[in-house]
């Protein structure tokens, strides 16, 4: 291997290392988020605060920047996302940390040696969304036709588009309503989008379908 090629490979490796986010710093930043979203980003039991643990880092970073720029209206988020409180690098770190959190969809199997704290911690990480009522066949058909391009067939999202499966149904419905009302952009190009063409029962059926596939994750 000649010296020039070796230098190029070394440069690329160092650049890759430089792109890694500081998960310890992200965990520290998340201690503030935990006041509402929980230690593991599991959110509120009734969906008053969304699940952010395991969410896509690119989506989280994009939304935090939107809160900071006040493009997305959420008054409680303003104090925490202003430039002095949450600069770009901190946003990347906390987003990467939250994405790294795994929230299982099945109850843990305890070992006899597990103490009470271990059992409690493992239990608190479990994320099981109650089944939502609706027509699963219709929900699946609409989702697989209209939603997979951005949110993937398994509901885990792509790029800056969020993971939907495993998210609180009540929270998702509130966001759907905001999109339909034009109070929140549904995509990068326009207000509304595909949801405006759906009936109320169609949206409910999509939510029912999403809760039916969470065990597959």
How would you describe the overall organization of this protein?
The protein is mainly alpha-helical and 217 residues long. The protein has 2 domains: 21-108 and 116-124, Cytochrome Bc1 Complex, Chain D, domain 2 (Orthogonal Bundle); 136-216, Orthogonal Bundle (Cytochrome Bc1 Complex, Chain D, domain 2), CATH 1.10.760.10. The chain contains 10 helices and no strands. The radius of gyration is 20 Å and the shape is globular. Residues 10-18 have low confidence and may be disordered.
Keywords:
globular, mainly alpha, 217 residues, single chain, 2 domains, Cytochrome Bc1 Complex, Chain D, domain 2
The H/E string reads HHHHHHHHHH
What structural class should be given to the helix and strand makeup?
A: mainly alpha
Largest sheet: none
CATH overall fold name of the largest domain: Cytochrome Bc1 Complex, Chain D, domain 2
CATH superfamily of the largest domain: Cytochrome c-like domain
Helical fraction: 40-55%
Whole-number mean pLDDT: 88
CATH-level-2 architecture of the largest domain: Orthogonal Bundle
As a percent range, the share of strand residues is under 5%
Sum up the overall morphology in one term. globular
What is the C-alpha radius of gyration, as a whole number of Å? 20 Å
What's the β-strand tally?
0
State the distance separating the first and last CA atoms: 44 Å
Runs in which pLDDT lies below 50 for 5 or more consecutive residues are 10-18
């Amino acid at each position: 291997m000649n010296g020039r090629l070796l230098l190029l490979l070394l440069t690329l490796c160092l650049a890759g290392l430089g792109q890694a986010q500081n998960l310890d710093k992200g965990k520290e930043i998340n201690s503030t988020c935990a006041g509402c979203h929980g230690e593991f980003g599991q959110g509120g039991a009734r969906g008053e605060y969304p699940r952010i643990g395991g969410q896509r880092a690119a989506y989280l970073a994009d939304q935090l920047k939107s809160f900071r720029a006040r493009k997305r209206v959420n008054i409680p988020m303003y104090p925490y996302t202003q430039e002095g409180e949450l600069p770009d690098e901190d946003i990347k770190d906390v987003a990467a940390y939250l994405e790294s959190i795994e929230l299982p969809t099945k109850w843990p199997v305890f070992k006899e040696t597990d103490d009470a704290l271990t059992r409690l911690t493992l239990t608190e990480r479990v994320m099981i969304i109650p089944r939502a009522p609706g027509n699963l066949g219709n929900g699946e058909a609409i989702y697989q036709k209209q939603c997979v391009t951005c949110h993937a067939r398994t509901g885990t999202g792509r790029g800056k588009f969020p993971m939907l499966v495993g998210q609180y149904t009540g929270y998702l419905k509130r966001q759907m309503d905001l999109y339909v009302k034009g109070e929140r952009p549904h995509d990068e190009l326009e207000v509304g989008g595909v949801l405006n063409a759906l009936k109320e029962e169609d949206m409910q059926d999509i939510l029912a379908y999403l809760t039916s596939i969470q065990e597959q994750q």
